[in-house]
Amino acid sequence: MSATPAYNTVIEITGTSTAMVAEAMTGSGAGPYQVTSAKRVFDPTATFTFYDNGIAISASDILAVDYLFGKVTFTSSKTGPITVSGSYLPRLTFLEGRAAGISLDADELDTSVFGSGWKNSAAGLMQLTVDVETLALLTADMDPGAGSRKLSSIFLNRTSVVLSVTPGGTGSAYRAFVIVPSEKEDAAVADLLKATATFKSTAPRAVDGTIVTPTIG
Questions:
Q1: Which candidate in 87, 107, 136, 206 could, as Cys together with 46 as Cys, close a disulfide (CB 3.0–4.6 Å)?
Q2: In a domain, 174, yes or no
Q3: b (16+ CB within 10 A) / e for 22-54
């Protein structure tokens, strides 16, 4: 495997929830079908309706919804075209990002018992953590549209957003609903102003009951 330059890494953060109507999806058979456009992060607080050639598909015929990548899988094959109505979260470019560190951690629960000289463990709660360094200030607005997305506000209001990191710019993306438990700005006389935000994953429950866990896709 050849080395991959890091400078093409893509970091995105989501903005204000926006409605979408009869958005086209691409796929075949029972799926998965994925939204064809860039509207691929579903808002889990919204209600979604999927259509097969304009006819609403029963909830009982929906096997799974991937909220982070805008996908749906059905229990039976469809003829199409498949469309979806609901709300999506626009993906915004993370301003002036210059470094990102990704950690996947699981608590180790000790399952050791008498009779063995070896330690055993089971995986406990898991979490995705991402530290992003940026040259933009914490008060910079990352949403060029009508909304507002500032790291300072995310921290102060404990807002849940989606963070997406694609190392090297191609291939798999780490994507999760996150909160910001800590952030800082550094100012040194011989250096640039820099800010660092720490993002930790959460797992919200969607209206349909789906628990939206971090995904690598």
A1: 87
A2: yes
A3: ebebebeeebbbbbbeebbbbbbebebebbbee
